[in-house]
Design a protein that fits this description.
It is built from 2 helices and 11 strands. It has helices at residues 2-23, 59-62; strands at residues 32-38, 41-48, 53-57, 73-76, 88-107, 116-118, 122-140, 146-168, 181-196, 199-210, 224-233. The two termini are 30 Å apart.
């Protein structure tokens, strides 16, 4: 019954994360606080994204009841590239809350076993510190004119914890069992994640703990592994 409850919970998280992926603003250059390049250094400003002009305000100019619009920093970004355009980069730092699935795990040699590559089901919740960079530039269209574009790159470092399955049999228990089954494991560790637009992938470094009575005889219990993960943003 407990295993069934966990499967339902993980399925619900995956479903809600897919919905949030469609609406998430992390992948879009939207209104909010950013580190903005000004006079050779970066300052934290509140940015309003417009169609042709981007406005940025310092915190002191928006703390009052009335916003002092005369102090806005203006960044021209028209649909067609102007001759004096030099490019802008806006950076935002946030805490990241994701759901991860580990596509495969590389297990190191242990107790006479060679290296293993496992591709069983794994799902985990990830919390980390994230940096998103939005680069404003122009690209050449097939009609040979310069059209504006915004390139998004994100990266994050954090921790994860979740559940997965692992094959348990007589071989990886050193003969302690005479049967085989898919055991429920708790996976925990750290992850380094990179994102380009809506695609999120990363390296995970973790350990598995078998959640039943055979954990003491499973040779991979609490042993480190390296994995490749895909993620969906929840915030």
């Amino acid at each position: 019954m407990k295993i069934f409850s966990w499967v339902i919970a993980i399925s619900f998280v995956l479903f809600t994360s897919c919905e949030s992926l469609k609406e998430s603003s992390k992948y879009q250059f939207v209104e909010g606080y950013y580190k903005v390049p000004l006079k050779g250094k970066k300052e934290k400003l509140y940015v309003l994204t417009g169609s042709d002009t981007i406005k940025a305000y310092s915190k002191k100019d928006i703390d009052g009841i009335k916003i002092d619009t005369s102090h806005a920093f203006l960044f021209a970004f028209p649909s067609v590239k102007p001759k004096d355009f030099q490019g802008f980069t806006f950076t935002r730092n946030t805490f990241d809350f994701d759901v991860l699935t580990v596509l495969f795990k590389y297990r190191f040699p242990v107790k006479g076993f060679p290296p293993q590559l496992n591709a069983s089901f794994n799902g985990a919740i990830y919390i980390g510190y994230r940096t998103d960079v939005y680069k404003l530039s122009y690209h050449t269209t097939p009609l040979h004119y310069m059209k504006r574009s915004i390139t998004h790159i994100g990266y994050s470092v954090g921790v994860f914890s979740g559940f997965g399955t692992a094959r348990i049999d007589e071989y990886d228990t050193e003969g302690a069992l005479s049967y085989e089954y898919d055991g429920l494991v708790n996976l925990t560790g750290v992850a380094v994640i990179a994102a380009i637009d809506k695609l999120t992938a990363g390296l995970t470094f973790g350990v598995d703990h078998l959640l039943d009575k055979n954990s003491a005889v499973w040779i991979n219990n609490a042993k480190p592994w390296i994995g490749l993960s895909l993620g969906l943003n929840l915030n």
